[in-house]
From TrEMBL:
Belongs to the CapA family. Residues 62-308 form the Capsule synthesis protein CapA domain. SMART domains: PGA_cap (SM00854). Gene3D superfamilies: 3.60.21.10. This is CapA family protein. Signal peptide: none annotated.
C-alpha cells in the first residue's frame, strides 16, 4: 500500500489518502535513487562481493504563507452583491495564480467569520462574512490560522459559527477550536509524501478574557504549551509550522520578545515560523541550532487584504519555500530551503474596487525596496 497525498485523479493538495492502483504502489513527486553498498564476504576458499541495494526516496514539496486578512467595513461592503451575499473573488483574482502554485498555502484569517446572521462589524470588534473562507479556498488557501487578538471580538458564538463554517467547506483551521477534542486533534496536511503539522498562537485577545474552562477557544502564547505542542506534533509530522501573532503594530523590525519566542520555538523543533500582527512586513531570518539544524522565520507577513491606510500597511506578500525529504532505509533527513518572497499591495479607488496585486506590477522601485528589506538578514 502506498501513501499518496496527491494524484491526478484526486484533488490537488489534499490530506493523506491511501489508495491501491492495480496492485502497484505509486508515490507521486518522489524520486527513487538506488544506493549501492558492497560489504565483502570471504573465507579460505572463496572471495566474493555481495551487492546490497537500498532505495533512496527523495521528495520535495512547496509551502507558502500570506499575512493578515483583516476585513474592515469598506472591504466587505465593496464585496457585497445585489442579492446580499458577498464575494471577494475579484479582489484576489490577480494573486490567485501565485497562491495556487505551492502544494500547501497558509493564510492568517484575522477576523472571525461569524457571518451576517450575527451582524457584520469592523474595527475594533470584527465579525466578517463567511464567504471570505470559500473565496480564499478557491484562490489556493489550504489552511487558515485563527489565533489572533481579534478571535474573541464577538464572543464564543462567533467563534463557534466561524469554525462550523470552516468544517462545512472542508477548510482546515488552527489556533481556535470548538472543544477539547478539536483542540487535541493535530492539524496535519500532506503533500508529495511530506507531512506538514500546524500550530498557531496569539499574544492575547485585546483584554477580552478567555472563558474559564474554555481555553480551547483560542491558543494563548505560553512557553510550556508551545514546548508540549511542538513535541507532540513532531511525532506525527515531517515539518512543523508555527504561526505566531506577536510583536508591535506598524514596527518594521521585530522586537526582542519576538526574537526570543522564535528562538524558543526553533529550539523545540519548529521548522517554519510565520509571524503576524504588526500589519507591516518584517524580515526573514534563519535560526541555527548548535547541532547545525536550521529553522526559517518570517517575523511579519504584513497585511494581505485589509482596509488600513498608509503605504507600508497596504503592502504584504506571499512567502514561499521548498522542503525536501530524503529517506534511505530508516534514515530520514528534512531540508528547508529556497526561501522566496513576492511582495503584494492592496489597491482601491476611493474606498471601492479593492484588489490585491503583485507590487512589481504597480511600483517596481518600491518592489525592490521591499525585497531588500525582507532579505536583509538572509544575506548575512
Amino acid at each position: 500500500m502506498a501513501i499518496i497525498p496527491e494524484v491526478d485523479c484526486v484533488m490537488k493538495k489534499t490530506l493523506i489518502v491511501l489508495i491501491f492502483c492495480l496492485g502497484i504502489p505509486l508515490l507521486t513527486g518522489v524520486k527513487f535513487v538506488p544506493i549501492i553498498s558492497s560489504p565483502l564476504f570471504s573465507d579460505d576458499h572463496d572471495s566474493r562481493t555481495t551487492m546490497v541495494t537500498q532505495k533512496q526516496f527523495v521528495s520535495t514539496a512547496t509551502f507558502s504563507a500570506i499575512g493578515d486578512i483583516l476585513l474592515h467595513s469598506q472591504v466587505y461592503q465593496d464585496a457585497e452583491k445585489e442579492d446580499g451575499s458577498y464575494s471577494f473573488t475579484s479582489m484576489l483574482e490577480h494573486v490567485a495564480p501565485y497562491l495556487g502554485e505551492s502544494d500547501i498555502t497558509f493564510a492568517n484569517q484575522e477576523t472571525m467569520i461569524g457571518g451576517k446572521e450575527l451582524g457584520l462589524s469592523s474595527y475594533p470588534s470584527f465579525n466578517s462574512p463567511v464567504e471570505i473562507a470559500e473565496n480564499l479556498q478557491s484562490a489556493g488557501i489550504d489552511i487558515a490560522g485563527v489565533a489572533n487578538n481579534h478571535t474573541l471580538d464577538r464572543g464564543e458564538k462567533a467563534v463557534q459559527a466561524g469554525l462550523a463554517h470552516y468544517d462545512r467547506i472542508g477548510l482546515p483551521y488552527v489556533g481556535a477550536y470548538k472543544n477539547e477534542i478539536d483542540a487535541n486533534t493535530s492539524r496535519i496536511i500532506g503533500a508529495n509524501g511530506i507531512d506538514f503539522g500546524f500550530l498557531s498562537y496569539t499574544y492575547g485577545t485585546n483584554g477580552i478574557p478567555v472563558p474559564a474552562g474554555k481555553e480551547y477557544l483560542v491558543n494563548i502564547i505560553s512557553f510550556e504549551k508551545m514546548r508540549r505542542d511542538i513535541e507532540n506534533i513532531r511525532k506525527e509530522a515531517d515539518v512543523t509550522v508555527v504561526s505566531m501573532h506577536w510583536g508591535v503594530e506598524y514596527e518594521r523590525l521585530p522586537n526582542e520578545e519576538q526574537k526570543k519566542l522564535a528562538s524558543f520555538a526553533a529550539a523545540q523543533g519548529a521548522d517554519i515560523i510565520i509571524g503576524h500582527h504588526p500589519h507591516v512586513l518584517q524580515p526573514i531570518e534563519w535560526i541555527e541550532q548548535k547541532n547545525g539544524r536550521k529553522s526559517l522565520v518570517i517575523y511579519s507577513l504584513g497585511n494581505f487584504l485589509s482596509g488600513q491606510k498608509g503605504l507600508y500597511k497596504n503592502i504584504g506578500g506571499i512567502f514561499s519555500l521548498s522542503v525536501t525529504k530524503n529517506e534511505t532505509g530508516r534514515t530520514q533527513n528534512i531540508t528547508i530551503h529556497s526561501p522566496r518572497f513576492l511582495p503584494t499591495i492592496v489597491t482601491n479607488q476611493n474606498g471601492a474596487d479593492f484588489k490585491v496585486l503583485p507590487l512589481r506590477e504597480v511600483d517596481l522601485i518600491r518592489n525592490d525596496e521591499i525585497l531588500s528589506h525582507m532579505y536583509q538578514w538572509l544575506k548575512k
